[in-house]
Amino acid sequence: MNYKILTTVIASTILFSCGGDEKKEIKTNNPILVVVNNQGNAEASPYVAASGKIEAENSANVSTRMMGYVTKIPVKVGQRVAAGQLLVSIKSTDLEAKKAQVDAAILQATAGYNNAKKDYERFQQLFAQQSASQKELDDMTARFEMAKAGLEGAKQMRNEVLAQFSYSNIAAPYSGVVTNVFVKEGDMANPGMPLVSIEGAGNLQVTAMVSESNISEIKQGMPVKVTIKSIEETVEGKVSEVSLSAKNTGGQYLVKVNLTKPSKKILSGMFANVQFPIANNTQKTNNSSALLVPKVAIVEQGQLNGIYTVSTQNTAILRWVRLGKTYGDQVEILSGINANEAYIVEAKGKLFHGAKIQLAN
What we know:
By secondary structure, the protein is an alpha+beta fold.
């Protein structure tokens, strides 16, 4: 009796298990919904992407050539200033003392010059009347010339001091906006120390760094696209400068791009991504075009790279491919896929070789 009961339980368990496997099989055979991109779209123009920062075409950190205490800062960050407007005043007691010495030297030199001039003119008259010798006239002439040179030297010293005083009143080099003030009243200013930064009201540009492997593709005057992610805006630009040396930039080459028509939303200091188009003739392999596909379509398995294509039976076929250069969010495929093949970009489930798929509308 117990044997019959045990046999019945085992049989029921086996039937139940088989029924469960059948349900799983049905679930597994459901097609996976996928998004397909035709390869014809992949031959879009490749580009080199580089990150950069937006700044004004005219920008400067204003500094001084003298040492002294900051006495006045009549501007604030964000304030618009005109060319020649006072930005910072600096007081130097040493310079003021030097000016007092020069003023005293000029007074002394002026008195000596006037006295020598009178003696020279008097001896000219005496010499004409034959009341003075030629030697006496020559001595007076030399004395007069020395006094004249002394006065001229004192005046030049005063000009030098006045020129140094111009560095105590720092003015705006051009019209623009104050972007930063590095000092406050009472601080000690030193030669070469930045005091105020100012940006001109002209064009905006992007300063980007490009690697040595891509710099040869970038030419002056090249049209580019500039994307500012923070405001989700893309504008046109043109390459204005291309550095030919990476000596002081850590192996990266500096490239400047002028923005063609920047909107008012674009501000200096924003980060941008620049797309430099490159020639398609660099993408030829075995007389067939090397193609570009989104990075998200590439499957990595160990050291191998593949891409899922679509068979005529609507199944996913994993094709191993050889990759080339990367261009932003796209990657170059040198071999392994034909130009007329469609590939899967996105799947609503886990793909595998031979999986049934359904194309999304």
